[in-house]
Amino acid sequence: MAPLRFSANLSWLFPELPGLPARLRAAGSSGFEAVEVAWPYAEPPEALARAAREAGLRLVLINTPPGDQEKGEMGLGAVPGRQAAFREGLEQAVRYAKALGCPRIHLMAGRVPQGADRIAVKAEMEIVFLENLRHAAGVLAEEDLVGLLEPINTRITDPQYFLDTPQQAAAILQKVGRPNLQLQMDIFHWQIMDGNLTGNIQEFLPIVGHVQVAQVPGRGEPSSPGELNFPYLFQLLEDEGYKGFVGCEYQPRGDTVEGLSWLRSYWDRRGHPEVASEGLHTTHMPPDSE
């Protein structure tokens, strides 16, 4: 069984460093070979590509733009009346992905509109989401890119988020029926919403394109106190044959590098895998995303 491959989420790690170029350098110096970032759009893609190349890093995941955050938006994929803005954001994300050699884009579903009842608007939002996802699948296929759907927990992190369980996301993926759309498994969110991690991982892993980790409930390092037994979960992912990346999307409790002792221990025990090409593009390459 091959060891897992980890990516540093630069929207969360190294918060003491200003700007993505500095965080890219820190990730490379810490032993990472891959990184992910929620919204890279404040930096020119060429500058990020150069910084990633100089740090010896591959960018493996970005998000579509969140929309108007001042108005409470956190993604637009399922938001009625925002279809045009979602498609504009998708085009921007694709431009960045191409420039950065990034193979995956998280297609953010967005929130139930303020003042609306979740149950009352669920059917309409799903119709909008399906329409946008079919459009996105076609756009992404032209560039050999993969779109990801991430359920975000509505108990703690974002009570208004539309997509909140793996079951809901898998059902939507089945309705869309496009092979270049997959599931993004953030173990933090899955544990809070449903638990049953062993069963859910075994059931949904065949359609998972990316994994993210953080301890529950504090969202700290996997080695921090909490509910989850990460040595067991990492072994489970290995046993089930997971070949993608595991994103470190957590809030460091102190210095980021010191807090990576859990990962250095994993590498010491299992080896430090080289990032395989897996058919990805060659890298020409604001915290608090969910």
From TrEMBL:
Record keywords, A-Z: Isomerase
GO molecular function, one term: hydroxypyruvate isomerase activity
Swiss-Prot/TrEMBL catalytic activity: 3-hydroxypyruvate = 2-hydroxy-3-oxopropanoate
Keyword Isomerase attached: yes
Residue span, Xylose isomerase-like TIM barrel domain: 25-265
A Pfam family it matches: AP_endonuc_2
Active-site residues (renumbered): 150 (proton donor/acceptor), 249 (proton donor/acceptor)
Function: Catalyzes the reversible isomerization between hydroxypyruvate and 2-hydroxy-3-oxopropanoate (also termed tartronate semialdehyde).
Protein family per UniProt: Belongs to the hyi family.
GO biological process, alphabetically ordered: glyoxylate metabolic process
Keyword Isomerase (UniProt): yes
Entries under Gene3D superfamilies matching the protein: Divalent-metal-dependent TIM barrel enzymes (3.20.20.150)
EC top class, as a word: isomerase
EC number: 5.3.1.22
Identification of the protein by name: Putative hydroxypyruvate isomerase
